[in-house]
Design goal:
The complex is a heterodimer of chains A (308) and B (268). By secondary structure, chain A is an all-alpha fold. Chain A is 75% helix and 0% strand. The chains are: A mainly alpha (308), B alpha/beta (268).
Chain lengths: 308, 268
């Protein structure tokens, strides 16, 4: 494929998919180890009512109102989960399940009841985004990467997810030791003066930011898959957290690239005419990677049993 | 209220004692639900001693330690570490949590766990240098685990896990060691290795406090006991406080007489 075709049509969706996958996979590593993987799922569901409410209030689908709406909904969801857990005295997983399905259902209802036909906001979009439409029409080929005029026409989603990824990487890098320590041994971490409550909350906030930014571009299916599949597969490849993080990034990138390619060209290989949803295919590839890791990964055996 | 009861409740803090003690707790009350787990407990550990915290299951032994260290939030109570509030004294404390409190499937190696003991030294971004690794290896050597440095922690037996936790505490280079059930579910070799290390610490003038389950080894391992059943029952040297009467009060008659007879008790 020539640059003149690839750069405007495929480069930006591919980059957005890759950035979104990595931005979700990085905090996903800690969420999976903390047995909080469902938080990513919960966040990606609860942002829908937030986005719809933000649209109903402002009447636009501009980025900032959407982000604020999603952030507001995440805060409401976290508060609801805590409230249900404490008042109902039920386990956190159940509280999360109740909260996010109710809020997602509420979001769908709101969406159906309100007139959003004028804008690109519907349940389909919320589920698997519109990765393929995030093209860079100002580009004419590889040389456009050095052309300020063309660069100004890059999709906003790319800028947002790139900034989000930088933020997520910085957070993981700087807070690495407290994150690892409080994930492994919270009590010990507290005796060292590590504010484990703050760390845990910050992790959820970072995951929420990644989820919202990714949701904006690629929909909730990818978000849910990327929080869990690459980290879970990476855990089966190694017994060291540092290496696990690296594997999760590799798996996220492979999922994004292969998923995008398969979605665009896979159906043609089988004689079909239409491409399939890239977000759905990326999530599928990440699932296949997890299955392969579970079958053939070197560290897949339960390591809890002592080896004498 | 009789004089003896008043003394046991110890409402008025004795300032001299608190100043001199590496670990002094006053009026500690902790509750997880309606009923307090620890109620108005005072504890004064003397420097250079080895103290066993004993009491029945659910008596608040671990909770007392956790509340004193700020791991769980008490309803009330104060803690002084070497006469000062906990906040500025964290680097003088090493804590060994219960082995079962962490996920041993966590993807990390033995040496990495011991390096966690150097957290306050390393901070957020300082690089781990050779002398840090050497120190961690040295601590592993002290608990007889030097050959396991690169093992994944999930591959260790219970006793080995406990020794790794102790090595991490040694790496902290503290003056006060607080251990939560260090001998629970470990093999005899580990028990011996741990007690040797703890006695070595005592010989260096460090202070050791351990939640302990096995009454038969109290007088062999420790020189002081602290007996608790939600409230403080008794505190003092093993020779004075480890008596059949105090055990009866602590365990509420739940100890079989035959068992008590076999213990190396002080004449009470």
């Amino acid at each position: 494929m020539s640059g003149a075709e690839f750069v405007p049509l495929s480069l930006t969706p591919l980059l957005i998919g890759m950035f979104a996958a990595v931005a979700c996979a990085l905090p996903g590593n800690f969420l999976v180890l903390r047995r909080q993987a469902l938080i990513g799922d919960a966040i990606s569901h609860v942002v829908l009512p937030g986005i719809v409410v933000a649209f109903l209030i402002t009447g636009t689908v501009a980025a900032w109102p959407m982000m604020f709406g999603a952030a507001g909904a995440s805060v409401v969801a976290v508060a609801l989960i805590e409230a249900i857990r404490r008042l109902g005295k039920i386990e956190p997983g159940a509280a999360m399940g109740v909260t996010f399905t109710s809020m997602f259902a509420g979001g769908v209802l709101l969406l159906e009841q309100s007139d959003t036909s004028s804008v690109h906001l519907d349940v389909e979009h919320a589920l698997y985004g519109n990765l393929e439409s995030l093209i860079w029409l100002d580009a004419v080929g590889w040389e456009s990467l050095w052309d300020p005029v063309a660069l100004a026409g890059l999709p906003d989603e790319l800028i947002r997810i790139a900034l989000t990824l930088i933020g997520v990487v910085a957070f993981t890098w700087i807070m690495w030791r407290p994150l690892k320590l409080s994930t492994f041994d919270e009590g010990f971490a507290r005796t060292l003066g590590v504010r484990t409550g703050v760390i845990g909350f910050a992790l959820v906030i970072v995951a929420a930011i990644a989820a919202v930014a990714a949701f904006d571009a690629v929909g909730s299916i990818i978000v849910i898959a990327m929080f869990i599949c690459p980290p879970a597969a990476a855990r089966l490849m190694t017994n060291r957290l540092e290496v696990q993080i690296a594997w999760s990034v590799v798996f996220a990138l492979v999922s994004a690239v292969l998923g995008y390619v398969f979605a665009g060209f896979g159906p043609m290989w089988f004689g079909a005419n239409n491409a399939v949803s890239a977000a759905g295919m990326i999530a599928t590839v990440s699932g296949v990677i997890l299955v392969l890791a579970a079958l053939f990964g070197p560290c897949r055996s339960r390591t809890g049993a002592p080896v004498e | 209220m009789t004089l003896e009861l008043a003394a046991n409740q110890g409402v008025a803090p004795n300032l001299d004692q608190v100043e001199a003690s590496p670990f002094a707790v006053r009026g500690m009350t902790v509750s997880y639900g309606q009923k307090p787990v620890v109620f108005s407990v005072d504890m004064t550990v003397s420097e250079g001693s080895m103290t066993a915290i004993i009491g029945p299951n659910g008596a608040g032994k671990s909770t007392l330690l956790k509340a004193a260290l700020g791991i769980v939030k008490p309803l009330s109570g104060r803690v002084m570490i070497f006469g000062k509030p906990l906040k500025g004294q964290r680097n003088r404390i090493a804590y060994v949590p219960q082995r079962a409190s962490v996920d041993w499937d966590f993807p990390t190696r033995v040496i990495d766990v011991v390096l966690m003991g150097l957290h306050r030294e390393l901070g957020l971004l300082r690089r781990v240098r050779q002398h840090h690794v050497d120190k961690a290896r040295d601590c592993l050597d002290r608990v007889g685990m030097a050959d396991f440095a690169n093992r994944q922690i999930g591959q260790l037996s219970g006793g080995q896990q406990q020794r790794v936790f102790l090595a991490r505490a040694l790496a902290q280079g503290a003056d006060l060691y607080l251990l939560d059930e260090p001998f629970a579910g470990v093999d005899a070799a580990t028990e011996k290795a741990i007690i040797d290390v703890l006695k070595g610490l005592k010989a260096e003038g460090k202070t050791v406090v351990a939640v302990h389950h096995d009454l038969s080894t109290v007088s062999e391992y420790f020189d002081r006991v602290f007996m608790i059943n939600t409230r403080r029952i008794a505190e003092g040297s093993v020779a004075e406080a480890f008596t059949a009467e105090n055990l009866d009060k602590t365990y509420g008659g739940r100890l079989a007489t035959a068992h008590v007879d076999q213990l190396d008790l002080a004449a009470g």
